[in-house]
Predict the structure.
Amino acid sequence: MSSPPDQFSLTQRQYLAGLDFFTWTRHFHVLKDLLAHVGSDGAVFEVGTGDGVLRRCLEPFVGGYTVMDLNPHLKPEVLGNLLEPQPQLAGRFDAAVCTEVLEHLPFADFPRALAQLAAVLKPGGRLFLTVPHRKGHLLVVSPRQRLRTWRFPFGTTSLSEAYNRFVRRRIWIDPNHCWEIGDGTVTRARVEAAFAATGFETESFLPLPYCDYWVLVRRS
C-alpha cells in the first residue's frame, strides 16, 4: 500500500478534492473582505495557496497576484520558505493572505513569520489571516442566508473529545499542525500579542467554524 503524500507535496487537484464546507465558509469571508479592500490596481501576496480558490476568484479583479509556497506542484511565483527574508518583495503589496498556514510552523516561529508578512506589505496594507482553533462549533444558516456560528468548549460536543480531555487529559489537534488556538498551550491572547509586537493592529475579528479570522493592518 502506498503511503499518503506529504502535506507539502500535494497537487492542487488533491487540495480541491479535499475541500469541505468549512473551507468554503472561510473562502467566502476572506474573498468578500479582499474585494472590499483591494482595488483594481492593488497587489496581493498569498502564502500557502493550497486549493487556489482565492486566487482564481480574485486575480481577474486586482492589479497583480503573487503566490509564495514551499510546494513546487502548486507552481508559485516565489518558491520559498516564509521564514526566510525575501528582500525583493519588501513593501510591494497592498494585501497579504495567509489562511491555515502558520500553524504548520512551531509557535516559536510565529512572530518571525508575522514580521516577514509585515515586511512585504506597504504601510497601511492589510493581512487576511486565519488560524485553527480547538473549540466545538455549530454553524446555522438563517432564513435570510446569514451564517451564524456558536462555539462550545473542547470536550463538550462529542464523547471522544470528552474522553480525551477529561480522562486522558489531552486535547487532540490535527497531526499536521504544530499548534492550534485552544490546544492547551496557545491562546488567542498570545496570538494577538504577537500581532501587536510585529507592527499589526486588528481591524476586525471573526470566529468561524474551525478557525479564527483576523483582518490586520500594518502600522505605518
About this structure: Residues 135 and 217 are 26 Å apart (CA to CA). Strands lie at 43-47, 64-69, 78-79, 93-99, 121-132, 136-141, 147-152, 200-208, 211-218. The helical segments are 12-17, 21-37, 53-58, 110-120, 159-167, 188-197. The two ends are 54 Å apart (CA to CA).
